[in-house]
Amino acid sequence: MSLLSVEQCRGARAMLGWSQSQLAKAADVSRATIVDFERGARIPHRSNLAAIRRALEANGIEFIPEN
Q1: What is the DSSP letter of 17?
Q2: Are 15 and 61 in contact (CB under 8 A)?
Q3: String of b and e for 10-47 (b: at least 16 CB within 10 Å)?
Q4: Which residues contact 37 (CB under 8 A, 6 or more apart)?
Q5: DSSP letters of 21-62?
Q6: For the segment 1-43, what is each residue's pLDDT rounded down to a tens digit?
Q7: Which 3 state secondary structure label does DSSP give 1?
Q8: Which pLDDT score, from 0 to 100, does residue 65 have?
Q9: What is the value of pTM for the model shown?
Q10: Rounded Cα distance, 20 and 67, in Å
Q11: 3 by DSSP, 3-state: which?
Q12: How far apart are alpha carbons 66 and 63 in whole angstroms?
């Protein structure tokens, strides 16, 4: 299982009302990392994915296992 899917990232960011820049700042990654990930151009390094997920979770997003 991946740390975070594109759809989860977009959805969580939308629920928080964050721009890609806000998420990048909160996760301490480049905006290009978020942009490229969300458009499916590339999957970020595992450490960056973990940082993105931690930033979302620290701001109230809860990820649940599928089925």
Answers
A1: T
A2: yes
A3: bebbeebebebebbbebbebeeebbeebeeeeeebeee
A4: 6, 9, 43, 44, 49, 52
A5: HHHHHHHTS-HHHHHHHHTTS-PPPHHHHHHHHHHHHHTT--
A6: 578 999 999 999 999 999 999 999 999 999 999 999 999 999 9
A7: coil
A8: 77
A9: 0.92
A10: 29
A11: coil
A12: 9
Count how many residues are written for the chain.
67
**C-alpha distances in Å from residue 64, one per residue of 1, 8, 40, 53, 67:** 12, 11, 22, 12, 9
**What pLDDT score does 13 carry?**
97
What does each C-alpha distance from 65 to 1, 54, 62 come to in angstroms? 10, 16, 10
CA dist., res. 2 & res. 20, Å (int): 20
Residues in Cβ contact with 60 at an 8 Å cutoff, skipping those fewer than 6 apart: 16
Site of tokens 């089925």: 67
